[in-house]
Amino acid sequence: MTDDRKKRLGERIRKARRDANLTQGDLADKLGISQGVISNVETGVSTIDAPDLPMWAETLNKPIMYFYIDEDVNPQERALAVLSMFPEDRLEFVLQMLQNMALTMHERTENPG
């Protein structure tokens, strides 16, 4: 993740924490981590590992996509970010669904009815 994207994620984490009326210490206690980690994430020094993001989202009462929605990021990068959230053992299933959707959309554009 680029430094700029880390900073944007950190800003969204800070906003979500404030929306939840939590201090950095409160959030750290709920997540079982140090306040320093929260500070580093919020300032863009470090980031959140994808497997940990659902726990952060639940604690902050935000959908996971809240942390990924970024108009400055192109759709392919956003799609890769979403795919990275799926467990490895379900990824093939998700890719097959996406492929079927893409083929259906392609057929509809070639054969409008």
Describe this structure in words.
The chain has 113 residues and is mainly α. The protein has six helices and no strands. The protein is elongated. The N and C termini lie far apart (43 Å).
Any idea what the CATH superfamily of the largest domain is called? lambda repressor-like DNA-binding domains
Q: Give the termini separation.
A: 43 Å
What composes the largest sheet? none
Q: What is the residue-mean pLDDT, rounded to a whole number?
A: 87
Look at the helices and sheets and give the structural class: mainly alpha
Order of helices and strands: HHHHHH
How many domains make up the coordinates? 2
Shape: elongated
Instruction: Count all strands and give the number.
Output: 0
Unreliably modeled segments: none
CATH topology of the largest domain: 434 Repressor (Amino-terminal Domain)
Rg, please? Answer: 17 Å
- What is the second-level CATH architecture of the largest domain? Orthogonal Bundle
Count of separate DSSP helical elements: 6
Q: Which CATH first-tier class of the largest domain would you pick?
A: Mainly Alpha
Approximate helicity band: 55-70%
* Beta-strand content bin: under 5%
